[in-house]
Amino acid sequence: MGRNRATLADVARLAGLSKTAASMVLNGREGTRLSAEAHQRVFAAAEELGYRPNMAARSLRTRKTATIAFVSDIVATTRFAGDLIRGALDAARERDHVLLITETQGDAAFERYAIEAMLDRQVDGVVYAAMATRRLTVPPAILGGPVVLLNAVSPDELPCVLPDDEQAAVAVTEALLAHGHRDRIALIGRNRLKEGDPEVSIAAPARLRGIRAALAAADVGLLAECFCAEWLPEHGYAAMRTLLSRSPRPTAVVCMNDRLAFGAYQALGEAGLAIPDDISVVSFDDDPIAAWLRPGLTTAALPHERMGRRAVELVLDGGAAGPSYVPMPLRRRRSVAAPAADVPAPRRPPA
């Protein structure tokens, strides 16, 4: 037989106070008019007895369960998921809340079941997360309480937390411009589906807008744009080989994500070209492998931990409809340098 669970009355008795006074101290309620020493007696008694509050009774009294649902499509099995969930867990823990996490794997029937199960537990709010930054349809069942979208938007104009891809693209492009790259900047990763369908991606068009805005501000145009069916290393490899076959070849390349950049690195190495001496490379996401490449890849980091934290904060504090953008810090590594002095710039045709 285990020990009987300590009660609030036990704590009050050991602290030499009334049950009401002990309750007010443990719940952080102001106006108890108790001395600091009395507060310490209550906390010491609770620790000695191993007292834990009866959350079921408290939820009946406050109509709050101190739980938040975290519902995702396949975010929990992606390489960036740890940071998203860690940020959400930390923010919930700091506010004395528990996070209930479920992953739907895109199965609509299971999603309905999982959401109903969480709502049956009377969660205080829902974080609805997506793997890819995109527009999605929110299940009507969760619209009755606080809902915040994480890494997604919806037609419902709910509060949402997004990475600031457009400003990140400006920063990535300006990193090349600051090193003197102008007329020979190429882009790897154009993708009509990602750029044209918000249910596939809203990151792709945002990154493209930022790149073009930074170039236009510097009165610079792209040397070439390579389309890629997917943003995977093999497509970055093929695109880089295509760029190397043209004349003049680029002095710098912007890749739309790190996996494309990994393929570009491979193609440049096979061609006997050095990064950044021959060609500079910049990218997005800050995949864990980016820092281990040689040279390390300059890339804009997806701020997933801060995004997860922000989503929980908005659930608990309330948030205005529309996006809350989280900056993507630029990880400056050694993949960028000034263009080689012995490579002549292409001549512009006369106006």
Instruction: Indicate the mean pLDDT.
Output: 87
Tally of contiguous helical segments: 12
Please mark out the parts with pLDDT under 50 across 5 or more consecutive residues, or reply none: 342-351
Radius of gyration: 27 Å
Shape: elongated
CATH topology of the largest domain: Rossmann fold
Total domain count: 3
Strand content: 15-25%
Q: What is the end-to-end distance?
A: 92 Å
Helix content: 25-40%
Structural class: alpha/beta
CATH superfamily of the largest domain: Response regulator
**Strand order across the biggest sheet?**
2-1-3-4-5-11
Biggest sheet character: 6 strands, parallel
CATH-defined architecture of the largest domain? 3-Layer(aba) Sandwich
Q: What is the CATH level 1 assignment of the largest domain?
A: Alpha Beta
**Number of beta strands:** 12
The succession of helices and strands, N to C, reads HHHHEHEHEEEHEHHEHEHEEHEE
